[in-house]
Specification:
Structural class: alpha/beta
Helix content: 40-55%
Strand content: 15-25%
Largest sheet: 7 strands, mixed
Strand order of the largest sheet: 3-2-1-4-7-10-11
CATH superfamily of the largest domain: Translation initiation factor eif-2b, domain 2
Number of strands: 11
Number of helices: 8
Order of helices and strands: HHHHHEHEHEEEEHEEEEE
Length: about 290
């Protein structure tokens, strides 16, 4: 009896790659996962039902590979739902629907990121001083857009241990005309926040009343609120989950990233993200506009 291929090759490899994509933006992860489903288009399936089972199984494996990324969850779910709801009459029709859904999802993710960055750029005025944390490709795009339009910005970039992503951001900013970037450790944020016009962060996701982002965001947001510095978050609207369907799961990295020596008599925790109550946010800027809390 002919059986569809299990999940070897490209998709299994992609699942492992996504599991390891800790320093990439969630939009990059979502696009890579969507592209991985194209592998199914080259497989043989005796029935439409078996194709749909394999599509759902692979999409589920990709979602589980990085349970902290809401956009990965929503885009994979959208692809499967779009194909299943069309009730394809044949395997070839199901594959055509899958390809169209993949194309639509990728275009939507990339457009949403561009539009969120464009909306955020409009809020960056000439001469502003802002603080941003670690690395957000959407925040970087917003700054680059604003600078290209003639806006001069001073940008303080805070960096958290042990991933050291702030230096990746500050190097990118250093290459942009009209931007004066400075790198500092995140624990020093309080020494510059009172000179900032806003703290501008990227977004991993917002689930109901909690904003999840790279570890170190929460104490900076709390300090900004104490100093009456506006906190703005930039990202795609697909990362905002108002109710049900997605449960954020933090990622805990290896203890060896924090300390190479053996931990004798104590434990080491190395979370990738922290949780900030949304009441500490002044506004969230997405492709759909501005949300206030």
């Amino acid at each position: 009896m002919h059986r569809p291929a299990e999940t070897p090759g490209m998709i299994d490899e992609t699942v492992e790659e996504i599991r390891e994509m800790q320093t990439h933006s969630s939009s990059v992860v979502a696009v890579k996962a969507a592209e991985a489903l194209r592998e199914l288009l080259d497989r043989d399936y005796p029935t439409t039902e078996e194709y749909l089972v394999d599509l759902d199984r692979n999409a589920s494996a990709l979602r589980r590979a990085n349970p902290s990324h809401a956009s990965l969850h929503t885009t994979q779910r959208e692809i499967v739902d779009e194909v299943e709801s069309a009730d394809p009459a044949s395997v070839s029709e199901a594959k055509e629907l899958t390809e169209a859904a993949i194309d639509r999802v990728i275009e939507t993710v990339e457009r949403a990121k561009r539009e969120a960055a464009a909306n955020a750029a409009e809020r960056l005025d000439d001469g502003m001083t802002i603080l941003t944390h670690d690395y957000s490709s959407t925040v970087l795009e917003a700054i680059e857009r604003a600078a290209a339009d003639g806006t001069h910005l001073t940008v303080h970039v805070t960096e958290a241990r042990p991933r050291y992503l702030g230096r990746k951001a500050v190097r990118a900013l250093a290459a942009i005309d009209r931007v004066e970037p400075t790198l500092l450790v995140d624990s020093a944020a309080g020494t510059v926040l009172d000179r900032c016009d806003a703290a501008v962060f990227g977004m991993t996701c917002i689930v109901e009343d909690t904003y999840h982002n790279r570890v170190g965001t929460f104490p900076i947001a709390a300090t900004a609120a104490e100093l009456a510095v506006p906190v703005e978050v930039v990202g795609s609207s697909s990362k905002i989950i108002d109710r049900g369907g997605f449960q954020f799961e933090n990622e805990f990295r290896p203890a060896s990233e924090v300390m190479r020596e053996p931990a004798e008599g104590f434990a080491i925790e190395n979370p990738a993200y922290d949780a900030t109550p949304v009441h500490l946010l002044d506004r969230v800027i997405t492709d759909e506009g501005v949300r206030t809390y």
